[in-house]
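Dear V.,

Thank you for sending over the compound details. I've combined the ligand you provided, zinc ion, with the protein sequence from our construct and run the structure prediction for the complex. I'm sharing the raw inputs here so there's no ambiguity about protonation or stereochemistry in the SMILES, which I know was a concern on your side last time.
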Amino acid sequence: MEFTKRRFLKGLIAAPVLAGPVLAAPALLMSQSEKAFAQAPKAKTYNDTPGFYHYRVGDFKITALLDGYFEMPTNFIKGYDEKAAKASTKQSYRRFTTGSVSVPVNAYVINTGKELILLGGGTPKFMGATLGQLPANMAAAGINPDDITKVMLTHTHPDHVAAFTTKNGSKAFKNAKLILSETEWNFIHNDKVRDASPKDFKSMIDYARAALAPYKADRQTFKGATELFAGITSSPLPGHTPGHTGYELNSKGEKLFFWGDVTHFSTLQFANPDWKVIFDADPELAKKTRHAIFERASAERLAIAGAHVDFPGIGYVEKSGNAYRYIPAPWMPA
Ligand SMILES: [Zn+2]
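Below is the predicted structure of the protein with zinc ion bound, written out as C-alpha cells.
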C-alpha cells in the first residue's frame, strides 16, 4: 500500500476515537494539528553523529539506535500548561521551545549471545526528514539486518513498525521472527474493530497490518507476563494501545525494563505524569499504567529504557515531591 505523511498523521490523530469519547471533534483537531505541525520548526535533515550507544545488562549487550526525532505540537498533549512545561524543562536542563516538543524515536538491539533481538522498528522518512535513520545507524553500529533473529514490538503504531518491511512488501529482516502480544496482534487484525473505525483510523490499522504482513506466518504471540527467552519477560502496560507491552531484562542481578511508549516527553511527563498524549487509545488507563511503573521504577531503582525517552533513552526514575524526575543512566563500559 502507499503510505504518505498525511495519511500517517491522519491515522495517528484519529486513533483515540476508537476508544470512546476521547476526541469530541476529531475533524477540528485534525485541522488544528496539521496547522501546528506545519508551523513547527522543520529541519531539512538530521544527521549530526551516528546514533548508536552501547549498554550492558549482565550478559546482555544492548545497542540503542536512534531513528531520529519529530516535532510534536504541544496541542497533542492533554493537560499541557506552558508555565509547568517551562519549569520542568528548566529542571531537566533542556532547551525550551514554544508550540512543539522534539520527540526522539529509539529502537534497541538486544544481543543475548544466542539471539539478536530488534526491539522497535523505526519510522519511514516520509514522516519527516529528521526520521528514518534506523537502518543507517544499525549499519554504523556494525549490525547486519540479516543477523537479526527476532523483531519484537511494544505496540503496533507506525513509528515502531515501518522499517520492518521493504518498499516492495517483503521482510526487511529476512531471518527474523516477529514477537508481540496476542492482544495487540488481535487488536489490529479484528475486522469488526477495523470496520467500525473512522476512515482515518482504518488507515492506521491497515498500515500496521501491511508492515507486519510479511511476518504473519512466522510470528510468536504471547499472553500477559511470559518469559520469552532466558532472562527476558513480557510485562503488560495497557492504555497507549490495548496490547502495549514492556519487556524486562534480568541477568546476573542487573535489570533493564523497556517500557515502550509509557512516556513521550522526557522533560514533561516525569514532572507531570497526568499529562497524556492524544495517541493513547485509553488515556486514563495509560495514565494509571504510567503512575504504576514510575512508582515501581523509583522504589526499585530499576533502570528503564523508552522509545521516546531522550536518546539513548536509558535511565532512572526518582521521586520528586508529588511527581518524578528522570535521571539519564551514566556511561559505563559496555
Ligand atoms: Zn511511539
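A first observation: Helices lie at 5-14, 26-39, 82-91, 134-140, 182-188, 191-195, 199-212, 283-300.

Warm regards,
I. M.
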